[in-house]
Design a protein that fits this description.
Layout lengths: L2 H14 L2 H8 L3 H15 L4 E3 L4 E3 L1 H23 L8 E7 L1 H18 L3 E7 L6 H4 L3 E5 L8 E14 L1 H7 L13 E4 L7 E6 L2 E6 L5 E2 L2 H9 L4 E5 L6 H4 L3 E3 L7 E8 L7 H19 L1
């Protein structure tokens, strides 16, 4: 058995979660996938996967081998691309992104990317929770906000500004605050993703200030917080990339524009092994251009 085939099958099983799904990705039967993985284990003299009738998980040796196998496959793909006579990109790019931003900006960009590179497949997984790139088999994740994991390759693609917004129906009942400190008199909808959801950051007369806010609705998702905001139930501080046409159509009104808040980076994060893939590099460049162009519209 070719060891590379075994590596590809093993990595595909881990990333897709089953032999059947791995077979679909590789274009072979699940029996052949199972045979290749078993052959790889025999060659190595160790078990890489715990198998039961209902579940499958990595052994300790499998966890260690997975990282190396991904690195070898990425290097092999990079080498082959250097001698590809067609000169075109091919293969799969697995992308993780936040729900609403992924539904809109990332999904639209991915669609245009595939139109330009028809031999590339984009697998997009949307979640407002940070995913483990290595465990999930992702080539790239799009994240909004400051990151702390220095083991990843991080590139800034663009940025988003925090804006305070409210629906016209809320403002008709409660009026609009003229100063951040007046927010104590208002119902504030809070995003649990913020480092301190109970205090909002503002620049007041050139000084940084954290203004206490309170309200009955707290969620770890800007899209979820926008539901009661649009219904006129409170004031919300939101990254502008999630506002879409809310401000243009007047569904929401920006407040306190004279007191700017934080600007957050929109970033791509990659494992070092994925950085070697040509299609991943080109996709990151494409996303960066898309975000810059959207910011100028």
């Amino acid at each position: 058995m070719d060891r590379i085939d075994g590596m590809q099958s093993f990595v595909a099983v881990v990333e897709t979660g089953s032999f059947a799904a791995a077979g679909q990705r590789l274009g072979i039967s699940n029996k052949l996938v199972s045979k290749r993985v078993a052959g790889l284990e025999n060659q190595l003299g160790m078990s890489l996967l715990h198998r039961t009738t209902r579940s499958m998980s990595l052994t300790h040796e499998g966890e260690r081998y997975l990282e190396g196998a991904r690195r070898v496959l990425a290097e092999l793909e990079h080498l082959e691309s250097e001698f590809d006579s067609t000169g075109g990109l091919k293969g799969t790019v697995r992308v993780a992104a936040p729900l609403t931003y992924g539904d809109t900006a990332v999904a639209y960009a991915a669609n245009r990317f595939v139109e330009q590179h028809p031999n590339v497949t984009i697998e997009l997984e949307l979640s407002d929770h940070y995913v483990d790139l290595a465990k999930g088999g992702f080539d790239i994740a799009i994240r909004i906000g400051n990151l702390s994991d220095s083991s990843l390759i991080v590139r800034k693609l663009g940025e988003t500004s925090m804006k305070v917004v409210a629906a016209p129906t809320y403002l008709e009942k409660h009026g609009a605050p003229d100063h951040p400190f007046q927010l104590s008199d208002h119902v504030c909808i809070r995003d649990a993703n913020n480092p301190d959801p109970n205090r909002w950051f503002f620049n007041i007369d050139g000084q940084q200030a954290l203004v206490p806010v309170a309200g009955p609705f707290l969620a770890n998702s800007p899209p979820a917080c926008l539901v009661p905001t649009r219904a006129g139930l409170g004031v919300f501080m939101c990254p502008d990339v999630f506002l879409g046409d809310d401000l243009k159509t007047g569904r929401l009104i920006e407040l306190l524009s004279g007191f700017p808040s934080r600007t957050l980076p929109i970033q791509s994060v990659q494992l070092p092994s994925a950085f070697r893939k040509s299609r991943v590099k080109v996709f990151v460049e494409f996303m960066s251009r898309e975000i810059r162009e959207a910011a100028t519209e």
